Amino acid sequence: MVRRALVTGGTRGIGKAAAVALKAAGYNVAVVYAGNDKAAQEFESETGIKSFKWDVSDFKACTSGVALVEAHLGGNIEVLVNNAGITRDSMCHKMPVESWDMVIKTNLSSVFYMSRSVIEKMRESKFGRIISISSINAHGAAGQVNYAAAKAGIEGLTKTLALEGARAGITANAVAPGYVGTEMVAAMPPEVLEKIVAKVPTGRLGDAAEIARTIVFLAADESSYINGDVIAVNGALRV
After folding, report:
1. Domain-by-domain residue ranges, the chain?
2. Distance, CA of 222 to CA of 218 (rounded, Å)
3. Is residue 113 among the annotated active site residues?
4. For residue range 134-167, what is the model confidence (pLDDT) as tens digits?
5. What is the CATH number of domain 4-231?
């Protein structure tokens, strides 16, 4: 049986690696992206995976977008990877309210919006995998009160979805990466990034493919007894 998978924020970074890994594992995959048309075109050309454009912080866009993906994939989405995320960093006492709202809606509300858009059909079919990307910074990070709150919220949402969906054959798990060599991390000032790497026991940044392998493992039919968990992939870094 070929399962159908959808990855948000799927044309770059961890999302791209997850989409490619799921396709290699035999899944029928589509991805969602927000605004970088050039990256989406390059992604499609490179991978052969169809990309769909919508704003995951908009519930109506999610429901209509999911319907388009289902039509393309030929059935309901069985594996959802909630990867879309942004940063708008600053200390709390300087943070504009707009930066808080934008990050919470894009990083956290989107997980509910996307999950809500697919979970009824997962319950009907008695199978589903919802895998959401948290972060080591869910436990707190100076200058990221919005991001940390959103990622901590993802972990609570995930554990609750697991309780609600377990008897319907649905698992909900989160992957909490440490610092991974993506564009988001590369945008940090070099001196900050150097200090971060120095704290990682393995002495390096993670690779997006390492996060993707964890996602593929959780997506498998055989992983049905792993539910409501948060799996850290962080090179032994503790904060």
Report:
1. 4-231
2. 9
3. no
4. 999 999 999 999 999 999 999 999 999 999 999 9
5. 3.40.50.720
